[in-house]
Design a protein that fits this description.
Two copies of one chain form a homodimer. With 321 residues, chain A is α/β, with parallel strands linked by helices. Chain A is 38% helix and 21% strand. The relative contact order of chain A is 0.15.
């Protein structure tokens, strides 16, 4: 039985798990992400989290077949220097090199967090048994990953899967990426909340103006909340229809906090998908919530190492390749 | 030296070529497509075209390593029963089976014509040396194909690459596919001409109202022609930006008669791409005209057989796969 250490590096929390080749989680660690700007305390917190997972699994580093990491982007791939957008402590931080030294392992694989959750949902979740999957997260941002012909797709520079920057409103708002009308500019939680606030929506007294509050307001029938969740849902459904036509997908699996906004988000999403996926093969793509919740990223990170034929890659390609 | 017979089955013309493994065309045949509704005359015309190519190359069927076909869709893939939209003579015509019998060959591979031109442009054209290419044709329709990680991508049912049905105007016109706001509904030659006519554009006396006339009018400064070519170009540029973000592409290569409408089409295309491709990796995708012209499809069809590692597939997958 092979076991690996899986790490999930996000702006809100750091997660670790020891995972075996059947996808069982044998031990876990989790801490809030340090918010400072010094790189080493963040790295130390990640190591502490890993140590907790190893202790819980009763595994020592020498037992590990390798280490898989799903980290907030951007990063240089496949070399694994990470610069997570919301974690200023790391800018070009050589995470792969540091972990390889720390654990004396030559199998350390680091990829984008949205790629991790896609692999997790393909290995053990909503995409299991399919060969062509779009995994996506609709949360603080909108990200994604692609399994095509049964294998993880990387693109030219490891950036394949950026479904958040598919254009859904050509004359829409400017996006943080520098583009215009991107899915993320319209359908992320913060952008949806901001638009609702601009239109006059207010959360109840003492309640934060966030996606959870907006979903609660929509569930209670608030018109502005309903309208803005519908716009976000339609944008997601439209983008998925484009992806299904372009890639002949079997499943699109959606995770992320803001995607859990219920029917006021999902019904317009499904309607927009049905409106825009006209070709029979595209209309046949199933659009579903992910099944693994927050564990998706850790299972995917583990699968980078545990299932190399489908999800792995060569992190040290020869020069010129 | 391996030689193959390549066939190009389109609504306007049938083409054939004998191609060697260096991509040299050793013989050619070409006839206008019969327009009747009987299946056999169309098949006989295709065989005559093939015979001309074989004669020109001084090759007999027994010399062939196989037969590659790029055919107008839709089709059942990979079994190769074709129902070309604009060729009512063939509905579920068992083209692969017939050719396999005719030429006593067990290597007959049939794919979509837009996939053929994509493979051609990747093997010997604008995408040579890259690993991630969108090939597309902007003509009577808008179609495409994908090379990802150096290999032809098929999708779940052989339909990957349908870039013509990426959504570019969510509230735009209904598309022939049943969707709404698809690239093809906005940017194909006939749809662009129709829109210009609706707005009052008229070609000169005795001139057909087609894409060539519209491009000529735009070149002469006609406002309606310019406006409508610009809308088509912008739609293409927007869709390519979405594809570049989603797939981390290196090149998008555009062929097809209507794409040869000059700067009134290409400048808005490039502007829209620059506006919408915000992420650096997406902006780095090169958007170029194809290099092979009408030979792209035939070279691609040849490459299905000649370069199986990159462009081939198993046409008889085991049941359950």
């Amino acid at each position: 039985m092979a076991v690996v250490l899986a790490l999930d590096v996000g702006g809100t929390k750091l997660g670790a798990a020891v995972v075996d080749d059947a996808g069982r989680v044998l031990g876990r660690g989790r801490v809030p992400s340090p918010t400072g700007t010094a790189p080493e305390p963040l790295y130390e917190a990640l190591l502490a989290c890993a140590a907790a997972a190893l202790r819980g699994a009763d595994v020592i580093p020498g037992d590990l077949s390798g280490i898989g990491v799903a980290a907030a982007g951007p990063m240089v791939w496949p070399s694994g220097e990470v610069s997570p957008l919301n974690m200023p402590a790391w800018r070009g931080f050589p995470l792969r090199k540091r972990l390889a030294e720390e654990f004396a392992s030559d199998r350390v694989l680091i990829h984008n967090d949205a790629v991790g959750l896609t692999v997790g949902e393909h290995w053990k979740g909503a995409g299991a048994g399919t060969a062509n999957l779009l995994g996506m997260t609709v949360s603080t941002g909108v990200g994604g990953g692609l399994i095509l012909n049964g294998r993880l797709n990387h693109g030219a520079s490891g950036n394949a899967g950026h479904v958040g920057h598919v254009v859904v409103e050509p004359d829409g708002p400017v996006c943080a990426c520098g583009g215009r009308g991107c899915l993320e500019a319209i359908a992320s939680g913060p952008n949806t909340v901001r638009r609702a606030l601009d239109e006059g929506w207010r959360p109840g007294p003492g309640v934060s103006a966030d996606g959870v509050a907006l979903a609660a307001a929509a569930a209670a029938g608030d018109d502005l909340a309903l309208r803005n969740l519908a716009r976000a849902g339609r944008a997601v459904g439209t983008a998925i229809a484009s992806c299904a036509s372009l890639l002949d997908l079997e499943v699109a699996a959606i995770v992320g906090g803001f995607s859990q906004s219920g029917p006021p988000f999902w019904e317009p999403l499904r309607q927009a998908f049905a409106t825009h996926a006209g070709l029979p093969f595209a209309a046949a793509c199933r659009v579903v919530p992910g099944r693994l919740g927050e564990t998706a990223g850790l299972l995917g990170a583990a699968a980078f190492v545990l299932v190399p034929d489908r999800y792995g890659w060569d992190p040290d390609p020869a020069p010129g390749h």
